[in-house]
User: Fold this.
Amino acid sequence: MMKIEADRTKCDGLGMCEAMAPDFFEVGDDGTVVVLDEQPGEEHRQDLSAAVDACPVLALKLRG
Ligand code: SF4
Assistant:
């Protein structure tokens, strides 16, 4: 199963991931990313890959 991992110590809160995949990422009140659904369905792989690749500080990973 696919899994999203976010390293909140790296996240700078600019929200590229949220802009690309708002159903899965949200920048929280503390200015770091919140993953809304850590185990998304396979049908979302393309959108999530694009969002992960868009992170300027490489804080996101897609496993599985
Ligand atoms: S794109 Fe990266 S740095 Fe920006 S909010 Fe998302 S995880 Fe954080």
